[in-house]
Amino acid sequence: MTRIAFSLLAATTFTLAACSSGPVEDAPLAGEWVLVPGESHLSFVTVKNAQVAEAHHFTNLAGLVSADGAATLAIDLSSVETNIDIRNERARDLLFDVADFPEATVSLSVDPASLASLQTGDSTTQEVTASLAIHGVTAEVPATLTVTRIAPGKVQVASASPVIVEAGSLDLAEGVEELREIANLDSITGAVPVTFELTFTQQ
Fold it and tell me: How high is the pLDDT of residue 12?
C-alpha cells in the first residue's frame, strides 16, 4: 500500500520541476532542478479492521529534473515511517522486501513550455501520468497536481486531491495479506489515499 503513495509522490515531483521552468525561449528547464528533502513530504493512509485509519510517510526522497524535461524520483523504501518500530520492520521486510527491492523509482517526461508563464505566487493544475517501478513491477499512475512557483528559483507541487491507489495493481496484495496475518487483524484495505507536497530548487 505504501508503494502506492510513492508512485503519486514521484509523479508530483516531476511535474513540479517542469513548472519551475523559465521563459519558453530559454532552454526547457534552464539547468537541473533538485528535490529539497527537508521541504518535501509524502503521506499515505491505511485502514485496518474496516474503521481504524492511520497515517504514514517516507523520510528519504530524492529527485532530479534535467534541462530536457526528463524527471526521475527515487523513494528509499526502508525509510517508511509508520510511528511504530515493529510495524516499520514488517513493512520493510514483508511488504516492500527491501533486501531485494530497496527503492521505488518514478520517471516522467515534462513539457515546460505549458508552465513557462508562471510567476512567483502563481499556481496551475496539471494532469500527469508517471511510470512507477517497484518490486519488479512497472505501472502507470495518474495524478492531479497543483504547481506553485514559490520563488524565482523554487517551485512546489502538491496533490490537488488524495490519490487512491490499489495495492493489487502494484503486486503488493500478498505483502498486505502477510501484514494482516502477522498483526492478527481482520482486514487491511487495499485502497490507499496518498497526499504529497514536493519542493524543487534550480541548480
Answer: 41
